[in-house]
Specification:
The structure holds 2 protein chains of 2 kinds. By secondary structure, chain A is α+β, with helices and mostly antiparallel strands. Chain A is built from 33 helices and 19 strands. Classes of the chains: A alpha+beta, B alpha/beta. The interface between A and B is large, with 119 and 107 residues.
């Protein structure tokens, strides 16, 4: 793979002061410029030369005519004015100007310091000639003389002289480990290794003089297996069965059983949901619900359970709509979004930039382990990612908007709808003769109104309000179609204007054609019972349909424009009507179907007609129900306009256009400026999910490793760049990555390899000597034990009390009572029933507000990507587990369960140990427990068990 | 506690990190890589707190000697208008009713501008320094001699949620650690029996950005603010109903017995020992939190001074109790206390907070008295008890408001271009005024300061270098001040 790099690899600086260029430098200027100790001192030679040069007044003109030479002509000027900060000793903003290569690479601002052949586009020239002294380079100095500027211009403009350097820059390669092509390493020959993993681990252990621990005993092993793979404890029966299984493949069968269980997907999906900042509210100040986000959670669970190939898993999350799986793109819009829009255009642009940054950041960290988001304002500080790369990726996602999308109907439903449509057509035909002569169009409907007319060319559409159901009219979106394309969208270049706008943060003129439906994104006229709103298209378009509504989400029916007219115009002067409320039923009339008149027909004919009408109404209703699409927060897509690089990330400072592409230094895909929106995403997805991409497989196997052992082979799981850490076991990482690809991207295959290794199966107890060398067990001399995460603790509690509700999928359960104000308020629930005892992955993920009991166990809130949770220990955790209503109720259930299942007090203690700790109690433990129960009761005993370290730890 | 991930290892410096890593596994190449790239030379190395997992809140040294030990922040939610409180502009009064030059082109949060509108409240010279403060907050005005005003703050957003995020966390986005979380992560706290960081929500409810204002972001959850106020006690603090104290204690003893037995199998495991200590800490907290929240020991004079006995303005009385609670927490050595004035519940825009878009005079006439006496009493009380010597008091809001009224309304729109905050107590000059807005109070023009500068200054007063207090998260060494901020040296003592 030919990897180019933008990382700073300067040529050795050759500062040639001889031969000196012929130039005019007044002595005064040279002396006056020794402004700091860092300043390069001007050699007497230069001074002498300057005097010499001063005597030859004609030189400058003579020389600029000749072909400029970097060393001879440019270096002396740059040395005098620039090297102080941008030379061999200092490279402020990562910019050096002491070689052509360094100059061409430029600094970290992302601006093009030198554009060969185009000094007028070169940032260097822009800065040294800047009119504003505060911005001009060099700072706090006199500007460069015109002659000097002209020499530098000539140097840049000599395009031919840059050819070699351009080639060199293009040919650069990074030597950073994670960018190197993946090659399957040989497995070292190690005798006692159970599998290849052990061979690699053993090698590292012997390097640090440590040995692997003995295998863990079976009770500990099965408990660990269930906690790591399911996030639930094994039942006492499962423990006993495994302990007594004398077949040599007992462990292998247990591993298969665990991988085949749907509880595996429920556990591992949580890790992925953390990583992609999944949440079910919008976050920010209003923090409204996102009721159609949960299908993605189920989609991820299913993907893990079905062992969906990881490459397909990636592709579907970036461009599932292109490959027939439209739920996956929920990934792109799973993050928080600020729905409070203002009139301030700068703020609106910044909000959109933030939305796109969230998509770029999540995509690049989750799949590539690269912090591309760092290059939003300047070139990446550590990695070969330029600011241009960032905006190239932004161009890929520029057409993605937050929002719900309708899932296509399942095939059988679609077939039924087609059949019903045929029935409806037949019935309508049969009823045609009964249609009343003066039938009108249905009354205006707050949820949707369609105006169809013969296609007419227009550049303007004006909607005039003459009367409303109440107050000032509200329209959530005015769509104007040219065949199937909505040409009224602002993103298509259409402009809106009005007779006056009602002032309110939720209701703005810009929302009349922003593509977003519903009351919170609507326009309201300033005038009661009147006003107009107008759309001007980018070009004259042939339009045939206008669709509008008061509130397509169906929450509001007031402020409805019941008396209206729609006109079109080519020039904003001459208007002609295309639709109005005149031919509609009056709004108080209920039926939406055309009126039928049976009076003029014979009684039996009329009877038959009425029967047909009844059938028509029935079938229509049936169709309506069947055809109602399931909505998913999977984003909406529209063709974007041009993307520009933004100087310092400021929306108000656009620079050159950037085409959609992947990361250049990783040979990212290159797309044309006019490439279709979906094509941008699918091509990018294929580039990421390619076996040739050196990062994708490495990053994913490292994540799996981390969730097994607590820490990844690379400890910075979402940063495989230069600021991340290096792998502790690089060859093991590469070997696992090769296994992932060669297995057809099967994650379960990697789990099997890990679970079958002696490394995973070894004991977890500390050993003093090894602790001294490697306390965090990174070399894996033991299995590192650790506390369960929030979800694991909650799930284990409801499991051992026997209350676990194993209903999979569907809308989540809420941990809160929600106060439905504009800004939502969430109050922790105090009463819990079976619906609340589902696994915590099904708890509706409310941003900002964490679960009142378990949130404090470092449970992230989905506001930002969490590749690895912190694990803190606090008194509030103790208070929550000891005193909360939730845990107390569960303790009651556990006590009742013990009471139900065992009669003898000692047997009750044993049962509790089996359920909570996966082992039996020693006689000593039984007697201590019984003594305590005598003083307190079984409820308190259960309460203590649910708080115990042994219960909460992965052993 | 898992503080020992490589990047957040309790280290003293990046160089130390490199030495450690180089000794450890696979670290040498990292060190050489960083060295190659010259990253060591041109960067200020991180200073990360040394945290003992079994005592995460133990008091820790600052980077340099601190001027203040504690912070007490009073946050006016909804964007409290500088025009009607502390930023006196005679020119605005003179040109009342005229259009603001250039305002025709100005589009703020809710749209277009009406005319320049002077405050309905008169300004008067206050204290010995004669600082002009409005009649909306006369008792605060009387303390002008103790205050250090910054009139030239500028923000990055004019929306409340992001604005509160920005003031409290340094980022407009959700998901970043609050200033209190950064502070307690760095410094721990003096009193181990109380939470290190307490957020006191307004009696009416939570602010617009809710728990983000005191959230831990990506810092360990231990450092999030614990929220309770005088009317809403700390959740799950009390033992469950129906369990007497003796039984409760016996249960905790039995639990610790179980845990110690289990620890025998994992000698030296710090995470397990930390959990054992956390239960001991929790028990202490069960005694000390109700004690600190028990205002019955306060003298009648104190209650009166704060206005906590105001039977006519019960809202003021409730907020006053929160202020007394805040003082008691500071007195007990809680490191960071945040008091909120204004909430988004029960009404929203302008009704229950400072968001006076439509009828500012009516709304502020209610909010002013709620804020004024209790907050002034809090400052006076801290001073008379000698607590201001160690405590930095900060008054702030998410952004300012316009000197114009909104087109067609009787209130002011959002304005992040210039707004006021004040500080008092340890570390700051007083009386002092830093920076200024233009002649109307619209835009900061003199000594323009950013919220980053404000944060950098607060950290400096606590002895923390904002550029070196960093936490590695998802590929980036994160700071409260992102990549910005300069300490406003002029306001420091």
């Amino acid at each position: 793979m030919n990897i180019r790099v933008l990382q700073f690899r300067h040529e050795s600086a050759r500062i040639v002061t001889n031969p000196e260029p012929l130039k005019f430098v007044p002595i005064r200027e040279i002396r006056g410029k020794t402004r700091s100790s860092k300043q390069l001192t001007t050699s007497p030679r230069t001074t002498l030369f300057a005097i010499f040069a001063a005597m030859i007044t004609l030189t400058t003109q003579c020389l600029t005519a000749a072909e400029p030479d970097f060393e001879r002509d440019a270096v002396p000027i740059l040395k005098e004015h620039c090297f102080n900060c941008h030379g061999p000793d200092e490279s402020e903003s990562k910019l050096r100007l002491d070689s052509m290569m360094a100059a061409l690479i430029g600094g970290n601002t992302g601006e093009k310091t030198v554009v060969p052949g185009h000094s007028d586009q070169s940032y260097l020239i822009e800065l040294i000639t800047h009119k504003d002294p505060a911005k001009r380079m060099p700072p706090e100095s006199d500007p460069l003389s015109e002659e000097h500027v002209n020499i530098l211009r000539a140097w840049i403009d000599d395009a031919a002289a840059w050819k070699d350097t351009q080639q060199k820059v293009a040919d650069r390669k990074t030597d950073h480990w994670s960018f190197q092509p993946l090659a399957r390493p040989d497995v070292p020959p190690v005798d006692e290794a159970k599998n290849a993993i052990d061979a690699f681990v053993a090698g590292k252990l012997s390097d640090v003089g440590l040995r692997m621990s003995k295998p863990a005993e079976r009770r500990r092993l099965i408990r660990r297996l269930f906690l790591v793979m399911h996030g639930l404890p094994p039942t006492p029966e499962q423990v006993e069965a495994f302990v007594n299984d004398s077949q040599p493949d007992a462990w292998k069968r247990l591993v298969e059983q665990v991988l085949a269980s749907s509880q595996y997907g429920e556990r591992w999906a949580q890790h992925w949901l953390d990583l992609v900042r999944f949440g079910e509210t919008n976050g920010y100040e209003t923090n409204r619900e996102r009721p159609n986000a949960w299908p993605y959670r189920d989609w991820v669970i299913d993907a893990f359970n079905n062992d969906k190939p990881y490459d397909q898993f990636i592709i579907e999350q970036i461009a599932g709509d292109a490959v027939g799986d439209p739920i996956g793109t929920s990934f792109l819009v799973a993050g928080p979004v600020d729905i409070v829009k203002s009139q301030d255009p700068n703020l609106t642009m910044m909000q959109r930039q933030d939305e796109l940054a969230d998509m770029i950041n999540t995509t690049s960290t989750a799949f590539l382990g690269l912090t591309v988001g760092c290059a939003r304002c300047h070139n990446h500080k550590f990695d070969p990612i330029s600011q241009t790369d960032y905006y190239a990726m932004q161009a890929v996602f520029a057409g993605v908007q937050h929002g719900d999308t309708a899932l296509p109907l399942p095939e059988d439903a679609q077939q039924q709808v087609t059949m019903l449509d045929a029935d409806i057509a037949t019935l309508k035909q049969q009823l045609a003769k009964f249609v009343s002569k003066d039938a009108k169009r249905p009354a205006v409907n707050p949820k949707l109104n369609v105006e169809e007319f013969a296609a007419v060319p227009a550049k303007f559409v004006r909607f005039t309000i003459n009367g409303t159901s109440s107050g000032q009219a509200c329209i959530d979106e005015l769509e104007v179609f040219s065949s199937n394309e909505n040409v009224a969208l602002a993103s298509e270049g259409a402009k809106s204007s009005s007779s006056g706008d009602f002032v309110h943060p939720l209701h703005k003129l810009s929302q009349i054609n922003d593509g977003i439906y519903g009351n919170p994104n609507s326009w309201i006229s300033a005038q009661v019972n009147g006003g107009w709103v107008k759309i001007e298209f980018a070009d004259v378009r042939k339009i045939d349909r206008i669709v509008w509504a008061r509130d397509r989400q169906g929450n509001y029916g007031d402020r409805l424009a019941v008396d209206y007219r729609i006109d079109v115009s080519a020039d904003d002067k001459a208007w002609s009507p295309v639709a109005s409320s005149e031919d509609r039923e009056s709004p108080d009339k209920e039926s939406n179907a055309p009126d039928y008149d049976f009076a003029a027909f014979a009684p039996d004919e009329a009877e038959a007609g009425r029967a047909l009408l009844t059938s028509l109404q029935g079938v229509t209703k049936q169709r309506e129900v069947l055809a109602k699409p399931r909505m998913v927060h999977a984003g909406t897509f529209r063709q974007p306009g041009a993307t520009h690089r933004l100087y310092r990330g400021e929306p108000a400072s656009p620079r050159e256009e950037v085409l959609p592409a992947g990361i250049a230094s990783l040979e990212g895909v290159q797309l044309a400026a006019d490439s279709a929106e979906q094509q941008r995403r699918i091509e990018t997805a294929r580039w990421i999910a390619s076996a040739e991409n050196p990062l994708t497989a490495r990053v994913m196997v490292n994540r799996l490793w981390q969730f097994h052992f607590g820490t990844g082979i690379v400890d910075t799981p979402s940063d495989f760049g230069a600021n991340g850490t290096k792998p502790t076991h690089p060859k093991l990482l590469d070997w696992l990555a090769a296994e992932l690809i060669d297995s057809g991207w099967s994650l379960k295959h990697i789990h099997r390899l890990i679970l079958m290794s002696a490394t995973w199966q070894q004991d977890s107890q500390p050993q003093a000597a090894a602790m001294l060398v490697d306390a965090s067990s990174r070399s894996l001399w033991r299995f590192p034990p650790r506390r369960l995460e929030a979800e694991g603790i909650r799930d284990c509690i409801v499991a051992v009390t026997g209350k676990l509700n194993s209903t999979m999928g569907g809308p989540g359960f809420s941990a809160f009572e929600v106060q439905l104000e504009n800004v939502r308020h969430y109050f922790p629930k105090q009463d819990f029933g079976p619906g609340d005892w589902r696994r915590m992955v099904y708890q509706t993920k409310v941003r900002q507000e964490r679960d009142a009991v378990f949130g404090v166990f470092d449970c992230p809130d989905g506001s930002s990507v969490t590749p690895k949770r912190s694990r803190s220990t606090t008194p509030l955790q103790a208070l929550n587990l000891l005193n909360s209503r939730f845990v107390m109720q569960q303790a009651e259930f556990l006590a009742a369960r013990l009471q139900r299942e065992r009669a003898d007090p000692a047997a009750k203690v044993v049962r509790a140990y089996e359920l909570c700790f996966g082992r039996t109690a020693t006689p000593d433990e039984i007697s201590v427990a019984l003594k305590f129960v005598d003083r307190a009761d079984w409820l308190q005993f259960a309460r203590a068990m649910l708080n115990a370290n042994e219960f909460l730890f992965v052993p | 506690m898992n503080y020992d991930t490589l990047h957040n290892h309790p280290l003293t410096s990046r160089r130390r990190l490199l030495v450690d890593t180089a000794r450890g596994l696979g670290g040498i190449a990292l060190a050489s890589l960083l060295h190659e790239q010259g990253l060591l030379a041109d960067e200020k190395s991180p200073l990360r707190p040394q945290i003992d997992p079994s005592q995460p809140f133990a008091a820790r040294d600052a980077h340099v000697p601190a001027k203040a030990k504690n912070v007490l922040m009073i946050f006016c939610s909804g964007a409290c208008s500088q025009i009607d409180t502390f930023d006196y502009k005679p020119e605005l009064i003179k040109r009342h009713g005229e259009p603001m030059p250039g305002a025709d082109k100005l589009i703020t949060f809710q749209g277009g501008q009406g005319n320049l509108t002077k405050s309905p409240w008169k300004f008067k010279p206050r204290g010995e320094c004669g600082k002009m403060v409005s009649d909306l907050v006369p008792m605060l005005g009387d303390l002008a001699d103790d205050m250090c005003f910054i009139h030239s703050l500028t923000g990055k957003t004019n929306t409340h949620g992001p604005g509160e995020n920005f003031m409290s966390t340094g980022f407009t986005l959700d998901g970043f650690p609050s200033m209190g979380a950064w502070t307690t992560w760095a410094l721990g706290t003096e009193n181990q029996n109380l939470p290190a960081y307490v957020a006191i929500p307004d009696p009416r409810g939570t602010p617009q950005s809710s728990v983000n204002n005191w959230g831990p972001g990506f810092l360990p959850a231990a450092f999030q603010g614990t929220d309770f106020n005088a009317s809403q006690p700390l959740r799950n603090l009390d033992r469950p109903a129906g369990i007497d104290a003796k039984t409760d204690e016996a249960t905790r003893d039995f639990l610790q017995q179980l845990n110690r037995k289990h620890l025998e199998q994992f000698p030296g495991d710090s995470e397990l020992s930390a959990r054992i200590s956390s239960y001991e800490l929790a028990a202490k907290m069960q005694l000390s939190v109700p004690e600190v929240g028990d205002l019955s020991t306060e003298s009648a004079a104190t209650i009166k001074m704060y206005g906590a006995d105001d039977v006519e303005n019960t809202l003021k009385a409730s907020y006053a109790k929160n202020c007394i609670l805040a003082r008691r927490l500071v007195e007990k050595g809680v490191r960071f206390v945040q008091v909120f004035n204004g909430a988004y519940q029960t009404g929203g825009e302008g009704v229950s907070n400072w968001d006076g878009h439509k009828s500012l005079e009516v709304q502020y006439a209610k909010h002013g008295p709620v804020l004024d006496q209790p907050t002034a009493a809090l400052l006076k009380d801290l001073k008379q008890r000698g607590l201001l010597k160690d405590t930095l008091v900060v008054w702030c809001t998410e952004f300012g408001r316009m000197p114009t009224f909104q087109a067609g309304a009787s209130g002011r729109d959002h304005n992040p271009a210039g707004f006021t905050a004040w500080m008092a107590g340890a570390g700051v000059k007083a009386p002092f005024t830093y920076g200024a807005t233009d002649e109307f109070g619209y835009k900061a023009v003199e000594n323009v300061a950013t919220v980053y500068d404000f944060h950098a200054t607060i950290l400096r007063i606590l002895g923390l270098d904002h550029e070196r207090l960093t936490y590695y998260h998802n590929g980036i060494d994160r700071r409260l001040t992102d990549v910005h901020g300069h300490v406003i040296e002029d306001v420091l003592v």
